[in-house]
Specification:
single chain, 238 residues, 3-stranded parallel β-sheet, binds fe (ii) ion
Amino acid sequence: MWFFSRERPLANVAVDLVVEVHNHVLPGVDDGARTLQESLQMLLFWAEMGYQKVIATPHQNTHMNASEEEIELAYVRVHRQLQEQEIPLVLSVAAEYLVEPELRNRIGQLRSFGVRNYVLVELGFWALPIGWKNFLFELQCSGYTVVIAHPERYPYADSSLLKEWYEQGLLLQINLLSLARLYGKQAQQKAEYLLEKGWVHFIGSDLHRSEQIEPLRRALVHRLVRKRMSTFLNPTLL
Ligand SMILES: [Fe+2]
């Protein structure tokens, strides 16, 4: 069994988040955790920080498209270790879908999470996908609550586009790693801007590698995360 220091994590910030909503913790199914051991390192971090639940969100797009069976197998391997090592975390699986034409064929079968059928989507990094507005509206009309992954990371997402997304009822999920400046100054500033505005619905990690754990630890005590803690929807997913 793993032994946890039962000291309360930094300023109770992580304890209040309770649920981790965006990460690549399942081993070998995308560009995230490479081994079972790396997965467990990540999960131990969350357990030590006071999280109670982790929703794994492997990439699903034309380049990273692990099958349902492969994802299930990865989940079972990790889940077994959680039980054997008595790590007190609930693990569930959703996905991070790239908005691309192929995704239209999967509407109705997307792996969503939470009672409001949240579905985590990412947009291309270099340009908005053609027809994105209609497509996201179609998702909403199909019963999903759309959550845009890391809006702060898209170079084209200026303040007016961020405002438009927020006002259209699209939920926004920022990465803690953006606050740790892992993707540069612009992404960090935009994440802070969204927090200042109160437009952040979910906080996630987008953790891919065990080397990112230390920056993640630092980001958890960011003053704006503390300031807005009561507004995030993470705890409603428990
Ligand atoms: Fe991701």
